[in-house]
Inverse folding.
């Protein structure tokens, strides 16, 4: 079996619809995958309708954006028994409005400072959760530039940059645990190891030990860290559907590796 527990759709900064992501998972031979859009659950009900449409099964969740010691820390939160927690619905509504306001202000400043073309109304319609990735793709399309060139205008070095509304990592863990989620530290390979070692002591449930951007020795190190702190091991491709991210099925667990995690979230492939 192939189990991939970290993926995105157009409900955040991915480019695939729920059905497109599901069909891509089927084509990639993925047996189980999780939907973990950034700070939103609004794709979950749509994705749940696809669960088991073919042999591929779906797990619901989201990816919380948090900050710790100026580092961007993402938490994959998996929902037990595929039930969407009300607390996460409420948080999703809050973040949607916050991100929209930020996007409008940033795009207006990009227009004023850099004189780029854009259609803000169209941008807001393209995704329920507007991230910098959405803004970057929009600018690339309207100004005939590459996404890499457009990325400067939404980067932290841009004169138009505005920070997003982010909660601390400790707050994110408390929110997720209160909502009865299983909390996994996403892509720890992108963080300094001392930061990871501090986060594992904050009450998380697991580490994303297998990830497309892992360097040599990363998985072994994170598995050892997980064993030392009695944490679950997860894997995720972080698929967004575009060429700048890995495709679904690129980083997976097998059935044996998945069993401890599946038991904690109340998931059975045969259900």
């Amino acid at each position: 079996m192939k189990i991939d527990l970290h993926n995105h759709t157009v409900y955040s900064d991915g480019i695939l619809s729920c059905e497109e992501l599901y069909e891509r998972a089927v084509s990639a031979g993925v047996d189980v995958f999780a939907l973990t859009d950034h700070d939103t659950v609004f794709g979950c009900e749509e994705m749940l309708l696809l669960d088991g449409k073919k042999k591929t099964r779906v797990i619901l969740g989201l990816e919380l954006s948090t900050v710790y010691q100026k580092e961007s820390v993402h938490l994959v939160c998996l929902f037990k028994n595929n039930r969407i927690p009300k607390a996460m619905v409420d948080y999703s509504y809050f973040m949607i409005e916050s991100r929209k306001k930020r996007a409008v202000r940033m795009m207006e400043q990009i227009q004023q400072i850099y004189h780029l073309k854009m259609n803000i109304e169209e941008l807001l319609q393209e995704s329920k959760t507007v991230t910098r990735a959405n803004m970057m793709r929009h600018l690339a399309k309207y100004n005939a530039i590459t996404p890499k060139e457009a990325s400067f205008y939404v980067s932290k070095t841009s004169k138009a940059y505005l920070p997003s509304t982010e909660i601390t990592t400790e707050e994110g863990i408390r929110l997720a645990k209160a909502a009865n989620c299983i909390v996994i530290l996403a892509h720890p390979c992108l963080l300094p190891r001392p930061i990871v070692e501090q986060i594992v002591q904050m009450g998380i449930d697991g580490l994303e030990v297998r990830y497309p951007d892992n360097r040599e020795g990363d998985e072994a190190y994170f598995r050892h860290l997980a064993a030392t702190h009695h944490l679950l091991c997860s894997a995720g491709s972080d698929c967004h559907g575009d060429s700048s991210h890995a495709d679904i099925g690129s980083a997976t667990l097998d059935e044996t590796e998945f069993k401890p995690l599946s038991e904690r979230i109340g998931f059975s492939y045969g259900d």
